[in-house]
Design goal:
This protein is mainly alpha-helical. It has helices at residues 2-30, 33-37, 44-54, 60-72, 86-121, 126-140, 143-157, 182-215, 218-225, 230-268, 273-282, 286-314, 316-325, and strands at 170-172, 175-177. It has two domains: 1-81 and 284-326, no CATH class; 89-282, Orthogonal Bundle (MetI-like fold), CATH 1.10.3720. Helices cover 78% and strands 2% of the residues. The protein has a two-stranded antiparallel ribbon. 31% of the residues are buried.
């Protein structure tokens, strides 16, 4: 078990370092931030001096190494656009993205697992066929188009929900939340559905497929032969074994919610780190882009690591195989 954890941690750190290096290499093709920071009256001497002060005259690998050394100490530098500490800017925007991702994740898991179980148990029913047909919308349509359709129906035509912004927020310590205000809760509905719909359909189809496979197993027939109720067979035996392979995919999908939040935050003008990243690209704000990409990478790799460990704990076959290999 310890060897497995150490191996996974080492692989995770290696992935983070490679992702960061690739991101820094790509930044050189985004543009030159000096062009945006200096006015029209700039001279080449001014450009060279500012590039030297910012360390942009150094090779990419040197810039990346310097960034890593500072990031370990919690220093991500100053934003080229705002002139403020990047860590402070992200701390102000992060609560909005995390709340949106949390609500979207809960929506995707609850409805995904629920609809997946229902369509598996009632696979020939009318309701099941309707749900499976409608689920094609969540898989086929791009996220931005789903968001625009929801805005058109619920904001423009029905005038029920806000089309942009986060609504009123309440400060609790250093955290700003919209959960405690009516406008904040209303503002969460449309972007949360937009962000979580794709993940919900994937989870639903995966749960349905695994559930149908489990229901055909011999131990399910034996459970029914013992006289157990359908509820006990479906939820105590079938669903429990269905969720074992679902954990991996579900964990990765929940991790991708934060990355997909860029599109949703742009459509709904949600004041999170995704929208901050889009604005940073437009102004070639490299410290903000680097900090955002590293944050997303840490979340992805961290969730993947947790899922691997949970899978190792839940599935005894992996522990047996690991013991034999050792």
């Amino acid at each position: 078990m310890i060897a497995f954890i150490l191996r996974r941690v080492f692989q995770s750190v290696l992935v983070l370092l490679i992702v960061g290096l690739v991101a820094f290499a790509m930044f050189s093709f985004v543009g030159d931030p000096v062009e945006n920071m200096l006015g029209q009256e700039r001279t080449q001497a001014d450009v060279d001096r500012l590039r030297e002060q910012m360390g942009l005259d150094q090779p990419v690998i040197v810039q990346y190494w310097t960034f890593l050394g500072n990031a370990i100490q919690g220093n991500f530098g100053l934003s080229y656009r705002q002139g403020r500490e990047v860590s402070q800017i992200i701390a102000e925007r992060l609560p909005a993205t995390l709340e949106l991702a949390f609500v979207s994740g809960v929506f995707a898991m609850v409805f995904g697992i629920g609809f997946g179980v229902f369509t598996a148990i009632r696979r020939n029913g009318v309701g099941s066929n309707i749900i499976m047909t409608l689920s094609l919308v969540g898989v086929s349509l791009p996220t931005f188009l789903i968001g625009i359709l929801l805005i058109w129906v619920f904001s423009v035509e029905l005038d029920l929900l806000p089309s942009f912004g986060r609504g009123d927020t309440v400060k609790i310590g250093g955290w700003s939340t919209g959960f405690l205000t009516e406008s904040g809760l209303k503002a969460l509905i449309l972007p949360s559905i937009t962000l979580g719909l794709y993940q919900m359909t994937l989870i639903m189809r995966l749960v349905r497929s695994e559930m149908l496979e489990v229901l055909r197993q011999d131990y399910i027939r034996f459970a029914r032969a013992r006289g157990l109720s359908e509820r006990a067979v479906n939820f105590r035996h079938a669903l429990k074994n269905t969720l074992v392979p679902v954990i991996t995919v579900t964990g990765l999908q929940l991790g991708s919610i934060i990355a997909f939040a860029i599109i949703t935050e742009t459509v709904f003008q949600w004041p999170g780190v995704g929208l901050l990243f889009i604005n940073a690209i437009q102004f070639v704000d490299i410290p903000v882009m680097a900090a955002y990409l590293m944050m997303i990478s840490v979340m992805f790799v961290g969730i993947n690591l947790i899922v691997d460990l949970l899978y190792f704990v839940i599935d005894p076959r992996l522990r047996v195989d690991g013991t034999k290999g050792h």
